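Example record used in the benchmark description.
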Amino acid sequence: MRSRVFFFARPKDRILNIIIDNCVHILELLKNSIIQINKTALIDRFHETETDEELIFQQLYFRING
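Model output (structure tokens):
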């Protein structure tokens, strides 16, 4: 739900009001996109770390038992 940040009474200022409202909406979309990208990067990093730990464990196991 979008809400107007400013309200200008003059007719020519209505255009400015629409532009500001759209900018606020675009900034909100960008903020949500950045949050989603950060979550994805965090999950990817978690899986990468998990894989690295498995590889280290496998290397240790084969050195001890090999």
